[in-house]
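Continued from yesterday's entry.
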Amino acid sequence: MKPAEVVKFLKNATEFETKGSIEKAIEELKKAIDISPDDGDIYNRIGDLYIKCNKKSKAIEAFRKGIEAYRKEDYLHNSLALCKKILRYDPDNKEIYAVMGKVLVSMDAKIDAIAYLFEYIETQKEKEDIKKVIETLDYIRELGVKDKDIIERMMQIYKSVGKTDRVALLAESSAERKSPEEIRLVFDRTINVLLVEDDEDDYIITRDMLAESSDIQFKLQWARTCSAGLEYLCSNEFDVCLLDYQLGERTGLDLLRDAIEKGCTIPVILLTGYSGRDVDLEAMYAGAVDYLVKGKIDAVGLERSIRYAIERNYLLKALSDSQEKLRAELVRTVALSEGLCEKQEDLQRLKTHDSLTGMLNRHHFMVTLGLAVSSARRDGRQICLCIGDIDNFKKINYLSGHKIGDQVLKTFAQLIGNSLDKKNPIGRYGDDELSILFPDTTAEEAVKTIEDIRNRFGKTEFKDENGAGFEVTASFGIVEFTGEESQQELLRRADKALNEAKSKGRNRTEIM
C-alpha cells in the first residue's frame, strides 16, 4: 500500500498531466520519489513524461533508476520491460545489454542472459574498453557455465585482450575443450555467401565490396529470382545470405518466412533502400539477424555484419546444442527426480510465454502472427487481429500498487484465455495490452466474442489492499486482414482501432 502522501502527489501529477502541464506533473512525481525512493512505478512514469516533452536523456536516466528500484523489490519482469523500453527509445544504447543480462540471470534464464552479455562484450570491444570486457567475462565465468562452446568463446576473447591467466583457469574447468582451430569458427576457409537480388547493378556492387576483403575469402552465389533464392536458402549450404527487401511483387521478408517454414537455418541479412524502426522490427520478427541500408554500406561494414551474423548463428547453435544436452540429461534422470523435468518444462515455457499472464510473450506472438499473415495471404484465408487494453491501468498501478495491478492483469488474461479455443493465440503485446489472433474468423464473429469478454470483465469485482471493492473496464480494437497488407500494417490498424475505442470514452470495442 502506498503512503497517503505519495498517493496525493500521484493524484496531483495525474491532474497536471491531464491539463497538459507535464513539467508540473514531473515535479509532483519527484516529491513522491523523495518519500518512496525505491518505487519503480514512479520512475517509470517520470520517464514516460520526459518522453512526452522530448527529453530523452532524462527519460533514460529515470528508466535506469526504475530498473534498479524494481530489482530491489524483486519485480524482475518489470525491470526487463524497462530495459526493453530504453532500447525502444534509444536503440544505440548497447550499455543496457549488460543490465538485461544480469536481470535475466536473476530470472534463472542464463542462456538468454549470456547471449545479451556477449552482445555487450562486442560493443565494449569496439570501444576498446578492455576493463568492461574483462569484468563481463569474469561475471559470466562466475555463473559456473559448463557449456564447452561458451567456454571456448570466452577463452578466445580473454586471449584477445591479453588475459592468459583467465584462459588457463577456463582451460582447467573445461575437461573436454576444443582446439583453438575449432573455435575460430569458419573464417579460416572460404565463406559461402548467397545473394538474392533482382538488380544486376546491386549484384555487381555487392560482389566488388566482398572482393575488397583482405582477411576473409568470400565465394558469392547470385540468385535473381524468388524461386531460385528459396531453393538455395532451403539447401542450408551457405554460411550467410544477403537478401534484397524488394523482389518484384514479393518482399525479401516474405521469402525469408517461407524459407524458415521449410527449415532454413542460414543467418540472413536484409538489404533495403529504407531505414527506420518499422523496417528494423519487421526484419527482426521475420527472422533476419541484421539489416543494411543500400547506398550506406561500405566493404568494411558489410564484412563486419557478415562476420557478426555467422558468429551469432554459431553461438545460438552452441546454446541450442547445450539445451538439447540438458534435456537429454533430464530425461535420463527423470526416474530420480520428476521435479527436474517439470523445472525444464517451465524454463522452456518461459522462452515463449509471459511469466505474469501465462500468455505468449510479444516476440513469440509476433512470430505466430507473421506466419498467420503469410499463410492467409498465400491461401486466401480470413483472419482477424484484436488488441485489448485495460482502461486506466497505470492509475490502478500507481494508486493501488503492483500486486493489485498484477492481479487485475492476470484476471484479464485468464478471462480471455478461458473464453477462447486453443486455436486462438493470445500474447502480451504491451504493459497492459493483450493481442488475440482469430484464424478463419470474420470481424463480426470476433466482435461477438470480444463483446462477451468485455461485458464479463466489466462486472468482475476487485479489491484493493484495504478490502475496498472496485471495478475495471477494458477497450478493444479489431481489424480484419485485407489480404494484401503486411504484418506491421495489420498491427498499426489494430492499434488505431484500439485508440479509437479509447477516444470514444473507453469500455467499448471498435472495428476498423
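--- second protein ---
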Amino acid sequence: MNHLSEQEKTTFNSILSDLIAIPSVKGEPSDGAPYGVQPKAALSYFLKRASEDGFIAENIGDKAGYVQWGTKGPLLAVLGHLDVVPEGSDWKTEAFTLTSDGPYFCGRGVVDDKGPVVSSYMALLRFKKNHPDPDYRVRLIVGTDEEHGSSCMERYCETEELPDIGFTPDAEFPCIFAEKGIYQMHFEADPDGRFTLHGGNAANMVPPYCECIDLKESKGISTKGVQAHASHPALGINAIDLMLDKMDPALLSGSPLLLLMKKYFSGSSETPFSSFFGSDISGAMTTNVGIVDISTDHARLHVDIRFPVTISGKEVRKKLEEAADEFGVKVVDDSVQPPLFKDKESRQISVLTEIYSNYRELFPYSEDEKEKRAAAISEKAAPIAIGGGTYARTMPNIVAFGPQLPWEKDQCHQANERIIKESLYLLVPMYEEALEKLGDIITGK
C-alpha cells in the first residue's frame, strides 16, 4: 500500500475545497442547467479539472459527465455524485466551506459524496500514472441529481456505454449486496385555513425544524429536531413529529393531512405504517415524513419510505392509497426505485470485501468508536444490506463500496457533516487497488 504523499494531499485538499465551496443543492432549471446553476457549476468545475489533468472529459447533457483513462478494452466505472442536500440548521462551521477541525474535514458533502469522489479521482490519477496504456478503460462517472431520484444517470444510460463492472463510493463498508426499495409519496388535502405549518426541505432528510402559526390567535410555536438521513430515521428526531404533540389539538383535528401522519407515520423507528410489512434479509421498512407545507391555499405532505427487497412497490402503493382514502387525502405524485439485490458470492463482491478486510485496521478512529471498532474487526468482513439508495441501482454491474466504516456514526444529511482526513486519504490506495483487481476480472486474469 502506498500512502498519499504531501503533494498528493495538497492536490486532494485543493480539489475538495473547491467542490465544497459550490453549494450544489438542486435549484430551478435554466438553460444549460437542468438542476440549477450550482449543480452545473460543480459538474463544470470537475470536468474542467480532469481535462487539465490529461483525461478524456465528457459532459452528458449538463446532467452528468465522465472522466476516463484508457481507450480500448472493457469498461470499468466508478459512479459518484456532486450534488448535495441543503445544509439545514445547527452548523458550527460554514456548511459550504471546507473546514479543518483537528483530525476532521467538515462541510456539506465531505462524506456524501464529494469527499469519496475526490478520493476516487486521486485513485484514477495514480492509475493513469502507473498504467500509461491499460488494456481496459476506467471511467469516473459523476452525476448531479442523486439526491432527487438519479435522473442524471437515466440521462447517461440513454446514450452512453454501460460498464462491465464497477462500484460507487456512496454507502458503507464492507460492500453492499442489497439496497431497499425507495418510495416517495406526495399527499395533498384541502387546507384548514386556521393555521400554517411548515417543516423540512427534502423528503430524504429527517426535518430538524418545524413552525406552526395559529392565524386566529396570531401566535406561533416551533419545534427543533435532529437532522439525519431518511434511510436511518431513528438517528434523528423529526421536528414535524414533535409538532403533532405540541400544537393545539383543535387545529390538529381539523387537518386530514396531519391526522394521516399522526396515525400512520408518527415515530422514528417502527411506525404504524411500517408494521404492515415484515422484515427480510435487507431489514425492516422505515418511513420518514420529510416535508410538511400547509398554508391558507394548500396542504402538502412528503413521505420517504425504504422497503425490504422482497416487497414490491405496488404493495407499498396499495397500502398508501388505503391510508390516504381513510382521511380523504389525495395522492398527487409518487416515485419508486425498486430494490437492488446482488449475489453475495460473486467474484466482484468477494474481491471488494477482501480489499476492505485488508485495509480496515489501518483506518483511524476516535476514542468513542474504540469499542465498536474492536467488535467489528473481530468479525469476518461480510457484505451487508442497506436502506440507502445509490447509483448501483441505475445501471448493471455496479455495487456500493464505502466510504462509511461499520463503527462510524452516519454523517449523511446531518449538520456538521465530517470525516477523518486520513480516512479520505486512505481511500485513495484502496480504490486504486479496486480499479486494478476489478480490471483483472473483466480482462479474464
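The longest helix spans residues 421-442. The longest strand covers residues 181-189. Will compare against the first tomorrow.
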